[in-house]
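Protocol step 4 of 6: record predicted structures for both targets in the notebook before any analysis. Target 1:
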Amino acid sequence: DRYHDAQLDPETYKIQVWDERASSGGMFKEKNIFSGGTKDQFSLALRLAFALATLPQERGSAPSFIFLDEPLGSFDDERAEALIFLLTEGEIARAFDQIFLISHVHVNERLFTHRVVLENGRVAASDLPAG
């Protein structure tokens, strides 16, 4: 709830985030001053925003899926829960028909339609429909 706006510096293309508590009245700060988990959250937010912005208005020709590889790796429980909500009920869930989440971090399996568990590169468990 602290950071609500971000921009790309037009000269360096670095992510800058608005911090309302900085200075008197707030200011944009560069991403490099934040913790690793916060940096990852900013970068993921930018990538998801880009994915949403580039979807054509007519979804018939657009990809209806998105792959997210280890987005939860450096998130605390609260951030992970917020991302899972975004993927299962929020704007990302509404924009894509299929969301592939690859994670070593445990997530509540009941929130997802299907799951595949890999062990040593092989399918150890799957609840995908046959066919």
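Target 2:
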Amino acid sequence: SDFISGFIGVWFYEYESYISTFGVREFEWGKGLGELLLIQAIYNVIYKGGKSISLEVRKSNFEAIKLYQKYGFRKVGMRKFYYSNNNEDAIIMTVNDIDFDDYKNKILYLINFHSQKWKLLSEIESLK
């Protein structure tokens, strides 16, 4: 096709990472693509030895917040009037300790569950 269905941008620091941009075309919603992009970002951060990932999300974006929480992100703060187009607040979300086995096992489970449901990626045995 001649268009982009979705994208995610990640900034890598030493052990911290930041999801700077993330979007999926509206007509692609509900097909597992956004979750696949998030999985790939988390996988890459783990692979590069990261220990945490942070992001901002619109306060009104309940579906995205729910997805982030599924992957261990927790609300840690708010940026008032963050989005310039409508002055909406942004919720700051972070997941720490992604290098711990408990988190890696959770992500491995979620990756394989996504794989079985959507058939967009292959199942994997390890995140090491």
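Step 5 preliminary note on target 2. The CA atoms of residues 113 and 123 lie 8 Å apart. The beta strands are 6-12, 16-24, 52-58, 74-83, 88-96.
Proceed to step 6 after PI sign-off.
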